């Protein structure tokens, strides 16, 4: 998911006002992202550890609601991207929060497969790795644009490989895919953080456009975190 607007500037030519604006913008992005993770985590735990899970998974497999919840997040992502210019800021915030809620419900399945202890351990590993790469992306002077382009192309290949392995059902290939996925999203965290920092330096903080760009940035980082978490869970998670 790429934002519609990109501003790439070297930190050496940014004045104090631009740097301050960028910091405020980045802080806003991470605030939205953190809120989304809290909502998703709470709903995932609530549905996954109570009888609510039976609304998603029945005796014969996934229910109709379960399938809807599984694919609904994609619809929200498309709505955020294609509705960027048409949505007002309050509507965009509402869609973003609804997306994080539905995404959380869709993640409740992990509580059927993995123990709470394993999920908690992998979450903290993901958080540490995410924080490290975000700091690197924010502070590095190296332009990560080319790396980001390569990672995006690699991500497309990864999705294709996952679709193929869905039918092959190879445990070895699944492990390799998971390892590659970790590498891709680890790099994307640094790339997206740098991109968000540069976008923040090129917009007027406090405007509706800046607010909507912050939502888009939060969505990118949120998806980076979730995907990194899921791939790490597939590698290190102990199946019950």
Care to describe what's here?
By secondary structure, this protein is mainly α. The protein has one domain. The chain contains eight helices and two strands. A two-stranded antiparallel ribbon has the order 1-2. Strand 1 and strand 2 form a beta hairpin. The longest helix has 33 residues, at 16-48. It is globular and about 55 Å long. The two termini are 34 Å apart. The model is unreliable at 1-14 (pLDDT under 50).
User: What structural class do you assign from the helix and strand content?
Assistant: mainly alpha
Strand fraction band?
under 5%
Distance between the termini: 34 Å
Low confidence ranges: 1-14
Number of domains: 1
Supply database-style keywords:
two-stranded antiparallel sheet, disordered N terminus, 240 residues, mainly alpha, globular
Give a short synopsis of this structure.
The protein is an all-alpha fold and about 240 residues long. It has helices at about 15-50, 65-80, 90-105, 110-115, 115-140, 145-170, 170-200, 210-235; strands at about 55-60, 60. Strands 1-2 form a two-stranded antiparallel sheet.
List the SSEs and their pairings:
Elements: H1 16-48, E1 57-58, E2 61-62, H2 64-82, H3 89-106, H4 110-113, H5 116-139, H6 145-168, H7 171-200, H8 208-236
Antiparallel strand pairs: 1-2
